[in-house]
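Q: For a teaching handout, I want to show students what a protein-ligand complex looks like in token form. Below are the inputs, and the small molecule is uridine-diphosphate-N-acetylglucosamine. Please produce the holo structure.
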Amino acid sequence: MSSSADRIAAIILAAGKGTRMKSTLPKVMHKIAGRAMVGHVLSNLAPLAPERVAVVVAPGMDLVKREVSPAPVAIQAEQLGTGHAVRCAREALGAFAGTILILFGDTPFVSTDTLRKLVERRAAKDEPAVVVLGMRPADAGAYGRLVLDRQGNLERIVEFKEASATERAINLCNSGVMAVDGTILWTLLGLIKNDNAKGEYYLTDIVALARADGRDCAVVEAPEAELLGVNSRAELAIAETLYQDQRRMVAMEEGATLLDPRTVYFTADTKLGRDVVVGPNVVFGPGVTVADEVEIRAFCHIEGATIDRGAIIGPFARLRPGAEIGPEAHIGNFVEVKNSIIGAGAKANHLSYLGDADVGAKSNIGAGTITCNYDGFLKARTEIGAEAFIGSNSALVAPVKIGAGAIVGAGSVITRDVEADAIAVARGEQVSRAGRAKDFRAQRQKLKSSKADKK
Ligand code: UD1
Ligand code: CA
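A: Here is the structure, written as tokens, with uridine-diphosphate-N-acetylglucosamine included.
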């Protein structure tokens, strides 16, 4: 038995309705740092490389099914309790003789290290049948209580509703997470009854049942912050705050400077290099990779973008999905970049929209340049060669190519390709008439005075 205790499978319970969220979205699909709660559970679990994973969902939770794919889902037709939910995963998981980890989809922060400790404890010499993840929260509230025997071994778990006053005074609580011997899990679950306050099949009953079968059970403790469960929008906000704080610390530990950490928001998958400097009020959406020595100035919103070494972004820049900013490029204030490749050292410093564009190395995009990439039906690309110069307030009507080294005069509306090294000007000719302004003023003043006389 001990030989297989370090082999791992996992069951994630996610069928609960999450009534208190007041949402049409399944509870575990609510996001923390841009990632569904159940996604956090899976990503913390992944380094343990479980041989199998099954996720228990309620009927109609297709969103969860998609989120956890390729892990199979098991349908729990009716929510009859956590013990019943685990039982529903039997077929999806298949016969498995190692350690089965049971996780909750609404408890997103249980760390990889903690999960590893549970598995190690299961694999220890005394081979406990069940290892429960416990905590000592500041407020034990309605958590299940862990009752220890005289030797300090776990004897049973008592749910709050069933607990006596003495049991309620215990501050060692059940986080819900467990590691169970896969050779007896299903037998134990088959013995659970629902004759309790909630009329549910409590998973927690397997501890007393294992003890009755002559097996030991154990507790591994972890900090409360890691075991926090989300049941309401307020708790979701608390979880988000905790996660962001921790993510900021990680960014700094990995060599980024955050000028005002509390105002920088990360997504779970944000990647920052070394010596990146991030100003105040910067938001990283999903899918952002930032190379070393990039400076991101205040008030930028960045998602789905890669930023190469030494680039300067912002202040007040918006990078949207598909923005690839080359090394040493500058994207300045009120510049929006979408699905565009900006070459090394290129500059777009003011008030521009670059969408579906390829911008050559060291080109200069003047203030107010707009790539007109959409005709109301289809998108088209704009190609700008290396070292081209686009004068201010130009509209580049795609599909269009500006050759390398070409110059576009300010205020142009470019609808046809411009050859390399050509100058293209596409705007009204300027006409100046000497003295006409002075004549005009004299004429108008005369007219105004004559009207005043008549009153
Ligand atoms: C559970 C524990 C309690 C522990 C607490 C920690 C039991 C009986 N009690 O209580 O000891 O202190 O978690 O947060 O296990 N679920 C299903 N199907 C069901 C019921 C629940 O999939 O039929 C899922 C939920 O989606 C959720 C998890 O199981 O992810 C926990 O269920 P919940 O009803 O929130 O359990 P608690 O009453 O909080
Ligand atoms: Ca709960």
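A: Two things your students might notice: The chain has eleven helices and 36 strands. The pocket of calcium ion (ligand 2) is lined by residues 229, 231 (CB under 6 Å).
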